[in-house]
Write a structure and sequence with these properties.
Elements: H1 6-13, H2 17-37, H3 42-58, H4 69-94, H5 97-104, H6 118-136, H7 140-151, H8 156-163, H9 167-187
Helix pairs in contact: 2-3, 2-4, 3-4, 4-8, 6-9, 7-8, 7-9
Length: about 190
């Protein structure tokens, strides 16, 4: 299916069920993988993808067709991910230790769901936490530029369109993101093997 075809775009704008189903079928798994790659947990990734499609449908009249539907969807996704991280950060500040304990352990103090290899799990979780903390230290544009270009491998022109920046500006954003992540991870004691 040619998602750039003006007739197809008109069907999408008019909320034609078959056209919208084609868009969801074509991009749901890509969006889900992108959310996971951005550090979102599996269940949250599903929610973020659903929110992305809801926003896509709600705002479809504003889609002018100057960029590809994929570009617009991923732009929405990365905004939803940023919102999710901000919301999570706010919520974590309000979590009590009792709530966290009750969610993970039964009344006898045993794991409700035992972890896999505890040492590896700890190292993986610690690294993910460090990366997520360091990602939070980046500006939204730096974070989104890094995720789209370096993690998802989007073409430079799509990233530029999504972020409304020039190629030169994108290079600066990526340099600052890479440098910021490297410095932050080194400060946390994470070094290349």
């Amino acid at each position: 299916m040619n998602f750039s075809d003006p007739a197809f775009l008109e069907r999408v704008r008019s909320r034609d069920e078959a056209a919208l189903t084609a868009v969801v079928s074509a991009y749901a798994s890509q969006l889900f993988r992108a959310a996971l790659g951005a550090g979102v947990r599996e269940q949250e990734a599903e929610e973020v993808v659903q929110e992305t499609f809801v926003s896509f449908v709600e705002g479809i009249e504003r889609f002018e067709g100057r960029s590809h539907i994929r570009t617009w969807l991923f732009g929405i996704l990365y905004n939803k991910i940023s919102e999710s991280f901000r919301r999570k950060k706010r919520d974590q500040a309000n979590d009590s230790i009792e709530d966290v304990f009750e969610a993970r352990f039964d009344t006898n103090g045993s794991w409700m769901k035992p972890p896999r290899d505890v040492e590896q799990l700890f190292e993986d979780a610690e690294l993910r936490a460090h990366i997520q903390d360091c990602m939070e230290g980046l500006s939204d544009k730096q974070k989104n530029a890094f995720l789209m270009r370096e993690v998802q491998g989007f073409p430079t022109n799509e990233v530029c369109d999504l972020l409304a920046v020039t190629t030169t500006n994108l290079g600066v954003l990526l340099f600052r993101a890479r440098n910021g992540l490297r410095e932050c991870l080194e400060d946390k004691g994470v070094h290349r093997p």
